[in-house]
């Protein structure tokens, strides 16, 4: 085992530990204030609803070159990817509008 492999596995371990603490510690802290859990649940529910709207709008068309190896893309997989892309685009636009609005609001004040 080279040092590259050791450092890669150490990096993977640090990512997993960091992700664990990034998820668990805010949950532990939010038990002091249950209203913050409600706001988080509403945000997650809004993103899930947005995804299902984007999923229902996206197409399930698959080009013949993507049906064969190495892709093996199915119509369901194509529709899922399309839904994820549309969701990402919508969230990007919402973030961009929020940034512009915040900057204009600060400039006016």
Automatic annotation (TrEMBL):
Keywords linked to the UniProt accession: Membrane, Transmembrane, Transmembrane helix
Transmembrane segments: 6-28, 40-58, 78-101
Domain of life: Bacteria
Protein name per its UniProtKB record: Uncharacterized protein
């Amino acid at each position: 085992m080279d040092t590259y492999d050791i450092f890669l596995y150490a990096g993977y371990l640090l990512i997993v530990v960091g992700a664990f603490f990034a998820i668990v510690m805010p949950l532990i802290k939010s038990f002091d204030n249950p209203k913050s859990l409600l706001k988080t649940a509403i945000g997650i529910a809004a993103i899930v609803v947005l995804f299902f709207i984007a999923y229902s709008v996206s197409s399930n068309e698959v080009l013949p070159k993507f049906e064969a190896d190495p892709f093996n893309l199915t119509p369901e997989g194509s529709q899922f990817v399309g839904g994820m892309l549309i969701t990402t685009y919508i969230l990007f636009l919402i973030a961009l509008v929020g940034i512009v609005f915040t900057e204009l609001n600060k400039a006016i004040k």
